[in-house]
Design brief:
This protein has 1278 residues and is mainly beta. Helix content is 4%, strand content 45%. The chain folds into 9 domains: 42 residues, no CATH class; 97 residues, Immunoglobulin-like, CATH 2.60.40; 215 residues, Jelly Rolls (Sandwich); 97 residues, Immunoglobulin-like, CATH 2.60.40.1220; 184 residues, Sandwich (Jelly Rolls), CATH 2.60.120.200; 97 residues, Sandwich (Immunoglobulin-like), CATH 2.60.40; 107 residues, Immunoglobulin-like (Sandwich); 257 residues, Tachylectin-2, Chain A, CATH 2.115.10; and more. The N terminus is likely disordered.
């Protein structure tokens, strides 16, 4: 600052400040300079801090840099300009230095190249330690950064809109000509390549500058959502239309209203005398809606040729007079994307990659634009948050690429300042960047694929592809040690928790782990020693590890002596244990063995009084425990501490140790997010009273249920408050399970509005805070004195074939006090042994669930009881104990899968967040080059997931294969398990009476065959021919009411048939109402497993190659059949891009115990491009509103919320069960059909609707006066 002030003072004087005569001027100037140097040195004499470079332009690793751009660097302070020279600031292309000039102003140095830089070249700029600040301090080290210049703009490219900005109201012109556009209404979306713009067909458009040329090429990708039969709608318009042909101007790419599946290129030209000609080149699209198309229109003035191209191919050529030029647009000052001024027509759909040239492109150039590779998916995804710091970064292309062009020069991640160092590999169509070390926590990264990446034909990406993601937060409080095993070499494993608890490797070998790297132990002398740090001896402890072994005994990790341990023991079972000071062992051990050479996740938790064991995210065992005691021994991974024994044989990855007891959700997070800590904030899943409820009982407690276990110490009267609009009311706060309860000190006031609030101060067990405050309001009414009741149960009373792995579920008539729903008030008794069975009780919303600790006994009667100790939120107890009985299925009659007792439906599908679809592709098949996998069926047993599917490749008819998974998300191909000399597909696998069966499609031999496993899952033999004489297509078998049933299609896909039998292997009879569907190919061909859930709700599916529809069977007897399509149908549909762009045609769900996991398939192109994916259908933790029987209140909810409709009872004689059915008004958006009890129904349309309850018994109408109530759906969400 002194330097700047000094100069200003000298230069601002209006008169000379130095006067010298004759030869005195030289000594005087020398004196003045010496004086100035003395002042400067004195001013900076105390500065000993070296300067730094704070910013550069271009930024480090920036791609697409303009070739005429200057290179600048900004320092942290003023520099000595004399030290900034071509010797200390250089720019090189790796071979030669770039010539140029330097200038310095304030704190910024600018290097201006003498000539434009070459295109597509990587440069490195260096500032050496020769530069110093004014005090003489040099840079502490040389500062270097690199950047890559843009590819050369194609000749004549006037504007190029990639639509990759993702936000804002400006679309940038990537041609470098500055023809940026302004968005009106259109919204950002996924485009054909990267981002795109979505136009709503009403008033959306992009305004771009008017660009007039003698010749033109206009190109774009588009995806139309709907046709417009009333107005022309344009992709790109620079046209003035008029009935007077001599007033017409410009050109336009559009769809005519009279033929909306036709693309038109309208062009107006003129000769030298001004005589105008209008021509319209046309191309018919078979289905313009629902597919991505590339379209281009060109005009060559020399030849007069006007051409229209679709998907790279020439479809129409018209001639104008040779030498004619395009009539320039003068009436309008701009051109538009997505809008035609002809009759105010707006395009409805997505547009991407719009280009405008001032010349006519050749046929080959148009084809190259169409064939240019694109990035179809990335991992992490665009804007993904919470990314694991040890993640690899991948990009999957739309086609095979030239591996030689996929390098660290063309695949470059950066944190915005510094490029990430690492290595790049390429396999199939996927490029992988593996960072050299972990990424930084809580940091935003941007990855770039440059235009240097080309496909096998040499076609480059049309523009650099960039995407951003953010890594997760630093490890949570309580993490003592975390070992990723990602070092890959050396004899030390680092502690990623930051606590310095490193380990020393003894003999164990580096290998591929569950996530990135891992260690292999030989079972003889391999281990990792962690020493005996006090920090790893907590009072409460959780130990987590991924393991893969075939050994029946061995220690995964052990603190010795006494202490804690996680091991494989007793023939492959897993256990977690602690010792007390008396050397008493407290152990929680799995019932099942896990030495199956598959990856499994084990977590042991000790909370001071209990040890719990989790396998693959689910608790499998628990036991009471004493106080943990630690001896003098050390801790080791792979053996018994510092004792030479119990060596482990197998692989280990992802070991972590906590000084707290992890919650169920925390364990689940570790399992589902390898390498990630629990950084996901909790959310409120339900409240009681519900939002905007009226008539709330004056003696009600107020409850809020979270989606995971919370830190109870953060839930108190400061973070959970209730206000009457004037002040907070007094009360007490308690917390149990996942539910917090506010109990007012006195009754609420009648007709008063209350607002309950949960603040962001509440935290989950991992320390994550609620994102913002959560509040809701309700109005108090009369006191609640009504005793709660049991509305329905699963299994139902007197059920005789209950699956032995069933949970027992109760649905109450109202919200209960969660603290009163426990193992004392919800019991299950084995009537054969006259003893209660062990299990865990959970409660959410109005649903209580008893999960037995082990499977029920075959053919055994049980009695479940809810006692009067169960109370509602107002404190009212059950009027009497509620008991019901059921009998487990016999081993001979056991059907797997059996979801009769699952209440929740599997139709609200979402892709998983921890894996990217597809999970299996044709390229995974190892026996031969396969084009596709399809028709995926799941089976789960003994902690292993199996996926059976069709494989198809050149020279092969179609075989059946299997893949395995430990979590249902990450799959490994195994082998082909069945092939025949004819086509096989659709391998539905099930188990009955202890035998594994498969019914594949064998229509090629006009038979329906049954196969039996001789060595599951890899060997099968033909067991029986069920039906013959016709081409039975995609047969789907299920069991209901003691009979077997099969839905099947025919060769022409015109009919759906129904057969039934008392025996699996013989005696099949066609149903008298079969075919049950005729003439509609959208409803006839089965699309996956038919199944029964929620007691008697039968589901069948259908597909047409593009989407999957679902139908619920209303009536099924040997003489009658009726069905209706469910409101959610279709549940799967083609996406328009990516792995399922052109179709989805299969759906196979499997209940995991807390959600549905569903295998699906999708195709990216033609019918030989199928691959397998996984979707999830999580069940809602509770309904947002409840309507019980009898209907006693109206309901107000937000749009998108669901309502539980339920009811149960018997007739006046107490003998015949009643059927409760609900009918919705047509304007609700829910089909005019009857819904069985109970059910969750989602309302997605705002408005006021009615619901009617009809009660019937086995004879007929029981209640002749149906009850009618109102559902108000607000146009809000929460």
């Amino acid at each position: 600052m002194f330097h700047n002030h000094f100069v200003c003072a000298v230069s601002a004087k209006p008169y000379p400040i130095l006067r010298f005569k004759g030869n005195k001027i030289i000594p005087a100037l020398l004196f003045f300079c010496a004086f100035l140097l003395l002042v400067v040195r004195q001013t900076y004499a105390q500065d000993a801090t070296p300067p730094t470079v704070t910013q550069t332009s271009p930024a480090g690793n920036e791609a697409g840099v303009g070739v005429n751009r200057a290179i600048t660097a900004t320092f942290s302070e003023l520099m000595n300009a004399n030290t900034i020279t071509m010797a200390t600031f250089s720019v090189t292309d790796g071979v030669a230095s770039v010539a140029g000039t330097l200038s310095y102003l304030d704190t910024t140095v600018t290097f201006t190249p003498s000539n434009d830089l070459p295109y597509s070249t990587r440069y490195t700029a260096t500032i050496t330690t020769g530069v110093t600040d004014l005090a003489g301090n040099a840079l502490s080290s040389n500062y270097t950064w690199s950047f890559t210049t843009s590819i050369a703009s194609p000749e004549g490219l006037q504007a190029y809109y990639t639509f990759d900005e993702g936000n804002g109201t400006v679309v940038n012109d990537s041609s470098g000509n500055g023809n940026n556009g302004t968005i009106t209404g259109a919204t950002w979306t996924t485009g054909k390549s990267g981002g795109g713009l979505s136009f709503d067909g009403n008033n959306d458009s992009v305004t771009v500058p008017r660009m007039n040329n003698d010749e033109v090429s206009v190109c774009a990708w588009f995806y139309k959502n709907a046709n417009d039969t009333t107005r022309h709608d344009a992709i790109f318009s620079g046209l003035r239309a008029s009935l007077n042909t001599q007033l017409r101007e410009g050109f336009e790419l559009r769809f005519p209203a009279s033929a909306p599946d036709r693309i038109e290129f309208v062009l107006v030209t003129q000769d030298g005398s001004g005589n105008k000609s209008t021509r319209i080149a046309q191309g018919d699209l078979v289905h313009s809606v629902g597919n991505w198309y590339h379209v281009a229109g060109t005009y060559n003035k020399t030849s007069g040729e006007q051409k229209l191209y679709v998907n790279g191919g020439l479809v129409h050529t018209l001639l104008h007079g040779a030498g004619n030029t395009i009539v320039p647009l003068t009436l309008y000052s701009d051109m538009r994307i997505g809008y035609s001024r002809v009759n105010n027509g707006y395009f409805r759909g997505a547009v991407d990659e719009v280009r405008l040239y001032s010349r006519a492109l050749t046929n080959q150039e148009i084809l190259d634009l169409f064939n240019s590779p694109t990035v179809s998916t990335t991992s992490p995804a665009e804007n993904e948050a919470g990314v694991a710091v040890n993640s690899a970064i991948t990009a999957t292309f739309s086609e095979p690429m030239d591996a030689n062009t996929i390098t660290t020069a063309t695949f470059t991640p950066t944190d915005g300042v510094t490029p990430v160092t690492g290595t790049v590999s390429y396999t199939g169509t996927t490029a992988t960047f593996m960072p050299s070390g972990n990424l930084s926590y809580a940091t935003n990264y941007t990855a770039t694929i440059t235009t240097g990446a080309t496909d096998l034909s040499g076609d480059a990406l049309t523009s650099a592809y960039t995407w951003s993601f953010t890594t997760g937060a630093a490890p949570p409080q309580g993490l003592l040690a975390y070992y990723t095993f990602n070092e890959g070499s050396g004899t030390v494993i680092n502690d990623s928790s930051g606590n310095g608890n490193t380990g020393a490797i003894n003999e164990a070998a580096w290998t591929t782990g569950r996530s990135a790297g891992g260690l292999s132990f030989d079972g003889l002398n391999d281990y990792v020693y962690l020493g005996n740090p006090l920090s790893l001896q907590p009072g409460a402890v959780s130990v987590s590890a991924w393991f893969k072994t075939t050994d029946s005994n061995g220690i995964i990790i052990r603190k010795r002596s006494y202490g804690y341990g996680l091991d494989v023991w007793n023939s492959g079972r897993i256990s977690f244990w602690i010792y007390n000071s008396a050397a008493t062992l407290f152990r929680a051990s799995s019932l099942l063995a896990y030495h199956d050479n598959l990856w499994h996740h084990a977590v042991g938790v000790y909370d001071g009084s209990t040890v719990r064991l989790y396998i693959d995210g689910a608790q499998v065992a628990s036991a009471p425990a004493g106080t943990i005691f630690y001896g003098a021994g050390g801790i080791a991974i792979g053996r018994d501490g510092d004792s030479s024994g119990s060596y482990y044989s197998g692989l280990i990855d992802g070991v972590s140790i906590y000084n707290r007891a992890l919650s169920n959700q925390g364990v689940s997070d570790l399992f589902h997010n390898p390498g990630l800590f629990d950084t996901i904030p909790p959310v409120v899943s339900s409240t009681s009273p519900a939002r905007d409820a009226t008539g709330v009982a004056l003696n009600s407690a107020i409850t809020v249920t979270f989606n995971e276990a919370m830190n109870a110490s953060t839930i108190n009267t400061s973070t959970f408050t209730v206000s009457n609009g004037v002040s907070d009311i007094e009360g007490t706060v308690s917390y149990r399970g996942e539910t917090a309860t506010f109990t007012p000190s006195s009754n609420l006031t009648y007709a008063t509005s209350y607002t309950a609030r949960i603040t962001g101060g509440v935290r989950d067990a991992g320390g994550n805070a609620l994102t913002g405050n959560y509040s809701w309001s309700f109005i108090a009414g009369a006191p609640d004195t009504t005793a709660p009741a049991v509305n329905s149960t699963r299994p139902v009373s007197t059920a005789t074939t209950v699956a032995v792995n069933s949970a027992i579920t109760v649905i109450f008539s109202e919200v209960m006090d969660a603290a009163t729903i426990n193992a004392s008030t919800f019991t299950v008794r084995n009537e054969s042994t006259s003893s209660e069975i062990s299990g865990t009780v959970s409660y959410s919303g109005v649903i209580a669930t008893f999960t037995p600790s082990s499977s029920l006994a075959y053919a055994t009667p049980y009695t479940a009881t809810i006692t009067t100790g169960a109370r509602d939120a107002a404190g009212n107890a059950m009027a009497a104990n509620y008991a019901w009985s059921f009998t487990a299925v016999s081993a001979q009659e056991e059907m797997i899968p059996d979801w009769t007792n699952v209440v929740y439906s599997p139709f609200h599908l979402v892709p998983p967040t921890t894996v990217t679809n597809p999970v299996q592709k044709g390229s995974d098949v190892t026996e031969y080059p396969a084009d596709m996998v399809a028709d995926t069926f799941l089976f789960y047993e003994n902690n292993t997931w199996y996926m059976f599917n069709e494989t198809l490749g050149s020279g092969h008819n179609g075989d059946l294969a299997v893949s395995l998974s430990s979590d249902g998300l990450h799959w490994t191909y195994q082998q082909i398990v069945l092939n025949e000399p004819f086509h096989l597909s659709y391998p539905q696998v099930f188990k009955f009476g202890g035998t594994y069966y498969m019914i594949p499609e064998t229509s090629a031999v006009n038979e329906m065959r049954l196969y039996r496993a001789t060595n599951f899952p890899s060997a099968w033999t033909r067991e029986a021919t069920l039906l013959s004489g016709s081409a039975f297509v995609d047969s789907s078998i299920f069991r209901h009411n003691g009979k077997w049933w099969i839905f099947t299609g025919n060769a022409t896909i015109s009919n759906c048939y129904l057969y039934y039998s008392d025996n699996l292997t013989s005696g099949w009879i066609q149903h008298p109402m079969s075919p049950i569907v005729t003439g509609d190919s959208n409803k006839t061909r089965p699309a996956g497993r038919a199944f029964v859930y929620d007691n008697n709700r039968i589901i069948r599916t259908a597909q047409n190659g593009e989407f999957v529809r679902v139908f619920e069977v209303d009536t099924l007897t040997t003489t009658q059949y009726a069905e209706h399509e469910i409101p959610e149908s279709p549940i799967l549909n083609k996406s328009g891009s990516g792995w399922n762009a052109t179709g989805m045609h299969h759906f196979d769900p499997w209940w995991t115990g807390n959600h549905w996991l569903c295998s699906v398939d999708g195709r990216s192109g033609d019918f030989h491009s199928w691959s397998a994916g996984i979707y999830l259908s999580p069940h809602p933790s509770s309904p947002d509103g409840i309507i019980n029987s009898p209907i006693d209140a109206d309901v107000t909810i937000d749009k998108g919320d669901s309502v539980l409709f339920s009811g149960t009872g018997s007739d006046l004689g107490g003998n015949l069960p009643l059927s409760y059915r609900w009918k919705f008004s047509a304007d609700s958006g829910i089909p005019d059909s009857l819904q069985k009890d109970p059910g969750l129904t989602q309302f997605n349309i705002a408005g006021t609707f009615t619901v009617t309850l009809t009660i019937t018994d086995a004879v007929g109408i029981y209640d002749p006066t149906p009850a009618v109530r109102t559902i108000s759906v607000l146009d809000t969400t929460h």
